[in-house]
Design goal:
guanyl-nucleotide exchange factor activity, single chain, five-stranded antiparallel beta sheet, EF-GSTs, elongation factor, protein biosynthesis, Elongation factor 1-gamma 1, alpha+beta
Amino acid sequence: MSQGTLYATQQIRSIAPKVIIKQFGLDVKISDKDGDYEKYFPLGKIPAFIGPKGLKLHEVIAICLYLINLGDPKSNLLGKNATEYAQVIKWCSFANMEILPTIARVFRTILGVFPYNKKVVDEGNAFLDKAIPVFEARLKEFTYLVGERVTLADILAASYFVRGFDNIFGADWRKKYPNTTRWFKTLISSKYLSEYFPDYKFREKPVEYVPPKKEKKQQQPAKKEAAPKKEKPAPAAEDDEPPAAPKPKHPLEALGKPKAALDEWKRVYSNEETREVAIPWFWENQYNPEEWSLWKVDYKYNDELTLTFMSNNLVGGFFNRLSASTKYMFGCMVVYGENNNNGITGAFLVRGQDYKPAFDVAPDWESYEFTKLDASDEKSKKFINNMFAWDEPVIVNGEKREIADGKVFK
């Protein structure tokens, strides 16, 4: 007899319940949101659980506790005694209510998911400067948060700390908090979390906020009959400032001009019917595998996305920060799914055979995953066409997801 259904998505809070189900081999179905979910959980909370006899649970800690008790009520994941059990709950609650929301608020504000507010970022970082030492002091004395064995507290907290290491915990931070870093590395390499974070790479510097470019003010017309201004005498030669150094060239400029100008493709795309004219023109006239490469671009943190319009704003901010590479690439990114269950994907044409010189002009480029596409593969070609046209659902993990919004980089 089935032990229930776990409603889980790619959101970070879904990891711990999935780990427990696998650890104990529970007969629990893992499902994305469906019609029953909306009926049972009108608040849209993830994860959520439906058990026997009408049991309905939301809130990740409650779900994890129930699943562990299904597997083994005496499991060390809940501690060895009442004192350790209380500590497990303490660290789980602290990570769930304080650490993850603060980390998310900081990096989402920096990346433009939320409107930028320096006070929000400063206050969030100030709180983390007080909270992280609590972990550091504990982990200086113990291997794990509750003694010398892994508990639910470690699994839950480490999965949340990923967002910090992904975005705001750079090399200097890791030197400052060696015990927390050691603990985190141990957990993501453990049997519990290794499958979710294989070959994890740490960032050197935290993400930085890049303000949008300000529009140039229109030049005011000169006033009629304005009295001529007296010219100031030129400064002496020895006071002359040295000429400004030339701006560094974009690394892709070294490749020279391609045979097919990118501007012509952008003009065709903007002015012609996409499926009927623009896409055939692209394959016949623009794409040359010797000069260009094609890339699938996926946002790494779909589990943290909420409203679709905010996800689309995130794409817009990313495109603004890519402006230095406008001459060297073209692409489209879409938001698929619905509020509180959506993702970001897209396709780009890039000058040359490497994506990094084109994308690393944006400080948040490492928040995206890049996969090279082979135009001779029919599946890849269909994906590219759809990213350019936005008129068919996106296939994600074998499931059709409707496109909610998107933006074009041109």
